[in-house]
Design brief:
about 350 residues, Hypothetical protein af1432, five-stranded parallel sheet, 5 strands
Length: about 350
């Protein structure tokens, strides 16, 4: 059952709308925008019926606050108003309102308008999901092409994406970097991680697949993949309308080899100078490298990998992220076993 917030300072209007929609939708009758925002901390509705004329915070101010919040801006809003002037309606539509319903309203008209807009919203979201699926499939193919050149680290992209999801979920549960992560869309964040090594497309096969330890000169070439990855993604951004996906991808690509103490590459950034995406990917990337077999080394055990990351807290890795990592090490172990087949 769809959920609808009805926000109006007039009790008569609140009860009239709630009664009209009863049995068809799960409704919450709220006497102010302040009460609405309090409930939005716990529940995300499918639609908001929002009165324009309210004391303290009116409907337009509430709409502005909704649209400025990354988590709330996509909630459809229909204004309820006793006004009947074109200027107010134009202003509301410019802010992103779906519709205006004049008060006092007819129950059948209210129901029909809501049905129409909820169905339209459903169709739009289904279309957006289809586009997102195509988008993600395309990125996956690009990532596979890059990885297919690297005979040494096969499966690395898929595995690190799994580790990344576990780690982000652990940070959310612990409330670590809560404000920043709350503004991320995981549907964009996780697939974008597939491009973290896209810069390797510029690295020679002879260096990329060398079975022995790299020389200093060869390692310098390998390190260039971070800056190259950033540049490649920047070129894509310049040719398209970025929806956040590429911004995440750019940070994963450019910063996953930076170290908390400033000794990483390519920029030798330290601590919070390193974008959060880079600091999270650093752990997922290193864990996978440690537990995976390479021509020049045997795989470390899960326990050894965990200890190395723990020892790197405050030097290689962000201590807060290591703290979250240590709460999900068994999930990392399970993901590693699953990926191994």
């Amino acid at each position: 059952m769809k959920t609808i917030f009805i926000v109006d300072d007039n009790d008569t209007n609140l009860m009239a709308a709630k009664t009209a929609l009863e049995g068809m939708y799960k409704t919450f009758a709220l006497p102010s925008a302040e009460k609405m925002f309090k409930l939005l901390e716990k529940i995300t509705p499918d639609l908001i019926l929002l009165d324009v004329d309210m004391p303290e915070m009116d409907g337009f101010q509430a709409m502005s606050a909704l649209k400025s919040d990354e988590k709330l801006k996509s909630i459809p809003v229909i204004f309820l108003t006793a006004k009947n002037d074109a200027e107010s309606e134009i202003h509301g539509f410019e802010m992103g309102a779906l519709d205006f319903i004049n008060k006092p309203f007819s129950a059948p008209v209210l129901i029909k308008r809501i049905e129409t807009h909820i169905e339209t919203d459903r169709l739009i979201k289904r279309s957006q999901q289809a586009v997102r699926d195509i988008h993600n499939a395309t990125i996956s193919v690009i990532a596979d092409v890059v990885e297919s050149r690297d005979k040494v680290t096969g499966g690395h992209i898929e595995r690190t994406q799994g580790y990344l999801e576990i780690l982000v979920n652990a940070l959310v549960r612990a409330g670590i970097y809560e404000t920043e992560i709350s503004n991320w869309d995981k549907n964009l964040l996780l697939p974008s991680a597939q491009l973290h090594d896209v810069g390797k497309i510029n690295v020679s096969d002879l260096v990329l697949n060398k079975p022995d330890k790299l020389t200093d000169e060869e390692f310098t070439l390998i390190k260039q993949h971070c800056a190259d990855g950033e540049r490649i993604i920047d070129e894509i951004i310049s040719k398209t309308k970025d929806d956040g996906f590429l911004r995440h991808a750019k940070k994963f690509a450019g910063y996953h080899h930076e170290k908390w103490n400033g000794t990483g590459y390519p920029r030798e950034l330290k601590e919070n100078e390193i974008p959060l995406e880079g600091r999270i990917m650093a752990i997922a990337d290193v864990y996978d490298a440690l537990v995976s077999e390479r021509p020049y080394k045997k795989p470390f055990t899960h326990e050894q990998a965990v200890q190395i990351i723990k020892d790197g807290s405050g030097t290689h890795f962000d201590p807060k992220i290591v703290e979250a990592f240590l709460t999900v090490i068994e999930e990392f172990r399970s993901e590693s076993i699953k990926a191994a087949g």
